[in-house]
Amino acid sequence: MAEITNYTPGEYAKEHIRITPTTLADGRDFFYLDDDPEYVSGAKTRELKDPRPLDYRFAPHLDADGNEVPYAAPQMRRDPLTGDWIPMATARMNRPITAGPGATAKGNPLAARKPGDPYQDGEVPDTDYNVVVFENRFPSMVRVPGVSEDVTYVDGNPLWEKKLAAGRCEVICFDPNEDGLPADLPVSRLRTVVEAWAFRTAEISKMEGIEQIFPFENHGAEIGVSLAHPHGQVYCYPFIAPKMEKELQHTEAYHEKTGGNLLKDIMNAELEAEERVVMRNHSWVAYVPAAARWPLEVHVAPVRDVLTLDQLNDQERWDLASMYSHLLKRGNAFFDKGDGKGMDLPYIAAWHQAPIHDARRENYRLNLQFFSFRRAANKIKYLAGSESGMAAWISDTTPELIAKRFHELGQIDISD
Asked: Cys bridge to 337: 181, 264, 299, 377, which one at CB 3.0-4.6 A?
């Protein structure tokens, strides 16, 4: 049975959110997060037994010729030219895809169980839920019992380090309505999603070998989403991811030079400039960064100095749920197709929080980076030669124009 050992709920969560752990048939951790009063009170309970006849997740299996082969543990290799670790997970080639032209499966493994439905390989044991969190069945990174985590070398050459990609990958389903959109969820449900982010950050930060916890949401088939269901993920890296490493280098250098916090000073500078601030409430500020890369990009920062999601207090969690709701709705209205209805915006919402063990964490600051590669209702920004080949971004617009469009969609002050 999955255990909860490090998470401490705030006053709201104590009274209004119930977390129930269980274990799926193959041994993966699973958690219900209920905000329905009948489940919070205990008047109703969730189904904890996964009825699927699944083998243990790390068990060997038979290949096409009937030979037993070990579990394909994901490996990572270090690029000697950049120092980046590159996880390689061949098992993900077999994951079900239900969205887009490459769909390989019918049904939805993220939906609640439907008795009698022809697709019975769903991940949720119950016939309903509010929010659920579980380990990914096809992880990019996972600690495998009995597999060495020592560094070895590709072809025996010390140029190419390799080791087990001993991280962790989790899925967060935001709502049981598989046809719904995150933008349409009530703020109360998004508040439960925020609690899920905080809960998993608190728990995973104490797990062996994890260096960075990255909650994120991919939305839209154009982004590459393989399952059409309102959900996000949590990637837990056994290294500092390249973008975070670069940010840490700059935040640390800024602190050594000025004694200040770069992310806080950026937020304050945006507030002073005013032009690119698109929303604010009691606890959060949303702005288009002055050097935005994407044709639609918004950063969201807490007013108070906070390192990680689990450090947010109740007011900050409610204010975040409210701001996230406004942001998703305005993102969907950003591009006009001529009918005044906007569109279901493809986007990535990426949480940047302080790494777990790195000493530079104290000079970092929690922030959300929200962006879309759509540059018009019928146009996409492709990352071609300059962006992909040299990571040298060329913007198709200006941050001021992005902010101007957001100003047309709603007021800046969204405090209740």
From this structure: 377
